[in-house]
Amino acid sequence: MSDVLSQNEIDDLLNALSAGEVDVAEIEEDTKEKKVKKYDFRRPDKFAKEQLRTLEIIHDNLARLINNFLSGYLRSVVEIDVLSTQSMVYSEFSNSISNPAILGIVNFSPLEGQIIVDISNDVAFSMVERLLGGMGKNPLLKEARALTEIEEVLIRNIIVKFINLMRESWANIIELKPKLENIETNSQFAQIVSPSESIALVTFNLRVGDTEGMINIAIPHYVIEPILPNLSSKLWFSGGTKREKTVIERQSLEERLERSKVPVKTIVGRSTISVSELLTLSVGDVVVLDNNAKSEFEIYVKDELKYFGKPGTHKNRMAVKVSRINEEGADNHG
């Protein structure tokens, strides 16, 4: 808002105009000057603001999932938050990476292309130390160094868990099947796109105990271009895609349950003998059971009596044929 002139200032301005000290044409020329908005063609804005906001919402959800996972996995106090979600060219991101780095190259299937998960050395070594029984103080980071084979395996397991959690955070947009392809320690070997390609960079701040560092997720524009129309707050909060998947997820869960294996055992009979008889048992001795040849056997599923059955054979193997269901067990457990 322009300043309001006082009466004295107005009088001075009129006097200056009358005396010719101020050119009216210059004033009119200034008012007609058009405002120009700067645009850097080297950094085209391929991501709309709403799309970046939706990406931030997705990764806020991912941060909560990672926080829950790391707290239990590391048995330590963990805090993780999304610091920023911004658009930039890939060269800016790669030039900001220090070597040696920890860069997870992730196949973002079913979308074409790869993304990068960049974990700062501070929190990476702190997590490794926690997993190896230390306090996470990270005393070895006075000088930057590459990961050992054991450390790389541990970090790989953590990154794999991170990208698996992405499936849940992206569920409202697309059913992802991400896969970790490789871990690079030099940014020059992690050229997943051309240097001028636009990316969305999501930056997390991660605190593990007293150690604090960054996690960056770089998502190239061309990778998520097919689903950009779905990156809207309206679609996210409507949860329509999520509801459509509920039936499929339930069917998948039922199929996995049906393939699950449970222990089943049959009690042929029981008997009670003294310790002296037990000590004198030998091959050929006969132990009399409380069941006769025509009695039903008890069939247990795990430790629960579920059925009764009759002995027999099936394809030259001993078997038990279910004769009836234990009604008490069915009433107690549905």
Provide a descriptive summary of the structure in words.
The protein has 334 residues and is of the alpha+beta class. The chain has two domains: 49-256, CheC-like (Chemotaxis protein chec); 264-333, Surface presentation of antigens (SPOA). The protein is 38% helix and 24% strand. It has eleven helices and ten strands. The chain has helices at residues 7-19, 24-32, 49-74, 90-95, 121-131, 149-169, 221-224, 233-238, 240-259, 275-279, 327-333; strands at 78-89, 103-107, 114-119, 179-184, 198-208, 211-220, 264-267, 297-301, 304-314, 317-325. It is elongated.
Oligomer: single chain
Task: Report the CATH topology name of the largest domain.
Answer: Chemotaxis protein chec
Would you state the CATH class of the largest domain? Alpha Beta
Helical segment tally? 11
Q: How many domains, as an integer?
A: 2
Q: What is the rounded distance between the termini?
A: 73 Å
For the structure shown, list the relevant keywords.
single chain; 334 residues; alpha+beta; Chemotaxis protein chec; Surface presentation of antigens (SPOA); six-stranded antiparallel sheet; four-stranded antiparallel sheet; 38% helix; 24% strand; elongated
Give a nutshell description of this structure.
It contains eleven helices and ten strands.
Write the layout of secondary structure elements.
Layout: H1 7-19, H2 24-32, H3 49-74, E1 78-89, H4 90-95, E2 103-107, E3 114-119, H5 121-131, H6 149-169, E4 179-184, E5 198-208, E6 211-220, H7 221-224, H8 233-238, H9 240-259, E7 264-267, H10 275-279, E8 297-301, E9 304-314, E10 317-325, H11 327-333
Antiparallel strand pairs: 1-5, 2-3, 2-4, 3-6, 5-6, 7-8, 8-9, 9-10
Helix pairs in contact: 3-6
